[in-house]
Amino acid sequence: MHPHITGKTRLYGLVGDPLTAAKSPQLLNQLFVEQRIDAVCVPFWVKAEDLSAFVAGARALRNLSGLLVTMPHKQRMLDFVDELDPTASRVGALNVIRCNEDGRWVGAIFDGVGCVLGMQWEGNHPAGKSVLLVGAGGAGRAIAFAVAAAGTRTLTISDVDEQRAGELAESVAAETGCITHSGPPDPHGFEVVINATPLGMNAYDAMPVNPERLAPGTIVVDIINAPEPTQLRRAAHARGCRTQDGGPMHEGQAVHALRFLGFDYRPAGKSAPDDGVLFAPARNASP
After folding, report:
1. What is the span of the domain harbouring residue 30?
2. Active-site residue 74, yes or no?
3. What is the pLDDT of residues 44-74, one digit of tens each?
4. Which of 23, 74, 129, 270 is catalytic?
């Protein structure tokens, strides 16, 4: 895809485990070609136990300009950056690092606002709706703050770690003013259900919620970006629900992340993001 590599080529990477379904390198390399940018994005398959060694090596690369960070490194990578953008300091995780020329690494996260932007593009905006969010890890934390800031009427957070879910709910309520609680992963009675867990990445995974408890018309968003519909999406579709895969979120967060890295990117035919949702609390939000 990239016509040539020069001695001045800037390097960007995607670091995570696994990376078999990752689409970020294709997106960035296509952007570099279209905008005639002398840069390339490559995948870095790094196990959790090897993250420290990877960072030590990456710090020595003077032509490394940025990193995209995915599971399972979004929270642990906080320990390896020099500065946190307000998005990352509030959420407690990151998914993009800008490597400045002075050697300082600045971390930010756009999973949440990317998810909301993708939902907006698909006609599934969470404003004014009751939302069940399953998963309180790195992506789940970001999505919790973002959907609350976007004007969600009520938000319930569920996680296998009940304490983690409860602490996140308290933080979101205090930060945004959105009515937020923790609770079980029961989708009954919710207008929007968001799966922010890894469940569904493998064919044999259990489903994050019981699809028999989904009401027809419920919006079901599964952030897993897979070529085929996950079991949850198939079951929800069979129940008469509106479903959305991880593609729109992936594109939405790419818009924000690439802006953070200094690039102008917007998918054809898509509206520009409202940057106010990055930090604005939902106290005065309206549907």
Report:
1. 10-109
2. yes
3. 999 999 999 999 999 999 999 999 999 899 9
4. 74
